[in-house]
Amino acid sequence: MINIGNMKTSIVASTLIVGMLCGTNSIAAESLEELNEELEKLKERIGQLQIDSVRHSEAEEWRYSDSLVHLSGYADVGYQDSDSEDGSFNVGRFAPIFHYQYRDIVMLESELEIEVGDDGETEVKLEYLSVDVFLNDYITLVAGKFLSPIGQFRQNLHPSWINKLASAPTGFAHDGAAPVADVGFQLRGGFPLGRTRTNYALFVSNGPVLVAEFEDGEFELDGIEAEGAGSDEDGEKVYGGRFAVFPMSSLELGFSLASGKATVSDIHEGDSSILGGEGARDYDVIGADFAYQRNNFYLRGEYVESEVGGTAFGAAASEGAIWETWYTQASYRPGQSKFEYVMRYTDFDSPHDSADQEQWAIGLNYLLTNSAIFKLGYELNDGLTDSEADEDRLTVQLTYGF
Amino acid sequence: MNTITEKMRSSEKAAVKLVITLGFLWASSAALAADFPAPGSLADGAQTWAENCTRCHNLRSPNELRDDQWISSVFHMRVRAGLTGKETRDVLTFIQAANATAAQVRTQAEARAEAQQDEAQEK
User: Are residues B29 and B88 in the same domain?
Assistant: First the structure.
């Protein structure tokens, strides 16, 4: 016998169970789909992390290398307008600085100076190339061609992004009283003297090359090429150095000295082959410098005198001569302003009246960043009438230190 | 079910962000673990940096160079400015620490921006 009542109950129960199961499956399918999506996203993330990890490992190889390679430097472009010449745009210079360092033991450093001349020709100079050996905490051996440690301008301030005016003070560029570079070696560093900081540099080098000229029926000294001669024609070395002390943290006082022999080995606009048996002349340099800072006000100054003695020997025998220059510069940047105001006074004296110059220079700088600077300057020059040294100049410069 | 999935999703995202953030932090601090030069004093470095660098030039932000680039740059300045070995290590320690701090701030800011972007997309 079939129990109809029980059958109905079973059908209803079965329907309910199937219905419930169908409903549960629908929910489960939805969750599964979402989980699959999440899983795919996670896989993508993990894949990306694996790629990042490989890249990171490759980067770490270089990060943990014993050798470091570093490129820095500076460049500048500008515009210049003087009394007698029409205004011209110019590419001042591109000066890449290469550093190759092995741990904290030795560093090779070199600066090139690439310039475009008035005629469009490109000139490349080796500003310096030295191997620096860090002997201990207080002494570094610097060998090769190095910036002259006499004074501060050449060794610390000449890069255009550091120099607060577009030009170097007269006598501190490649033209005058202050030596530019030397070839030899030096020991330099710093040490505490009680609670006072000091720094020093001692060097021996080939010394400069002297240039003579023939004028008014006799030879006289034309100039000192103290730009790091690659050979020492007279075999006489120059010894010198600089010592600086900080009586207070905001003030540096420096004293420089160099002495040795130098010989005429070139004749300006003349035939150098006539030279022979030239006597080695005394060559002495003295210098003093200071730098003071208080908040955003900076005051600095520098004096350099180069003296070359006379000689009675050789084809270009002549009397001695003295080149002397000094400048003082004040600059101020109000608070965190982007503007900086600069004023500099320079007085340069040489054996040639046409080169002597007294200069007031004023400048307004705008700091795009701390090492990218737009400079506007004006030089009021006083020299021999109608000479180039007497012409006032407007200078505009955009410089970038990197 | 949806609530559980959302919680899972949010936890996963948080975990992934944590992993990425830790990775960046580790990467940014890795140069500090370089074995040369020896670590110096951060406080003395800050003082030496503030008192000496501006004597000649405008201060360069620690963010301008990577930690390894700062090593060569500061050793270059050791020669130029007549710094002692200790002063060099101190300045380097300070700059690399400042650089790492800046990197952390950047990473945190990036993580925050990413989280905000995700939230906006979900809405």
Answer: no
Are B50 and B83 members of one domain?
yes
Sort out which chain B residues have CB atoms less than 8 A from A56's CB and list them: 23, 27
Chain B residues lying within 8 Å of A188, measured CB to CB: 79, 82
Statement to judge: residues B51 and B108 lie in one domain: yes
Q: What is the pLDDT of residues A246-294, one digit of tens each?
A: 999 999 999 999 999 999 988 888 888 888 888 999 999 999 999 999 9
What CATH architecture does domain A66-401 belong to? Answer: Beta Barrel (2.40)
Which chain A residue's Cα is nearest to B10?
A38
Predicted pLDDT of residue B32: 38
Separation CA A315–CA A264 (nearest Å): 10
Work out the minimum CA distance from B54 to partner chain A, whole angstroms.
8
For B94, the domain range is 39-122
Contact yes or no for B30 and A63 at CB 8 A: yes
* Minimum-distance CB partner of B69 among A70, A132, A367: A70
Q: The complex's ipTM?
A: 0.82
Residues B13 and B56 in one domain: no
Summarize pLDDT for B31-84 with one digit per residue, the tens.
Answer: 434 578 999 999 999 999 999 999 999 999 998 998 889 999 999 999 999 999
Q: Say if residue B108 is in the same domain as residue B58.
A: yes
> Does the beta-carbon distance from A162 to B8 stay under 8 Å?
no
pTM for this entry? 0.79
Residue of B1, B76, B87 with shortest CB distance to A109? B76
Residue contact B23–A52, C-beta within 8 A: yes
**Contact assessment for residue B96 and residue B71, using Cβ atoms and an 8 Å cutoff:** no
d(CA A5, CA A264): 133
Q: Which residue of A97, A154, A197 is the best one to mutate when testing the B interface, meaning the one whose CB has the most B CBs within 10 A?
A: A197
Domain boundaries, chain A: 4-61, 66-401
Instruction: Looking at the structure, tell me whether residues B84 and B98 fall in a common domain.
Output: yes
Residue B37, token pair as written in the block: 């030069």
Domain total of chain B? 2
Q: What burial class does residue A66 get, using C-beta atoms within 10 Å of its C-beta: 0-12 exposed, 13-18 middle, 19+ buried?
A: exposed
**Under 8 Å CB-to-CB from B35, ≥6 apart: which residues?**
none
The sign of the dihedral angle between the CA atoms of A202, A204, A205, A206 is positive
CA distance A61 to A75: 32
Task: Answer yes or no: do B20 and B72 share one domain.
Answer: no
| Pair B53, B27 in one domain | no
Average pLDDT for B98-108: 75
Smallest CA–CA separation between A95 and chain B, in Å? 16
**Selected residue with higher pLDDT from A360 and A8:** A360
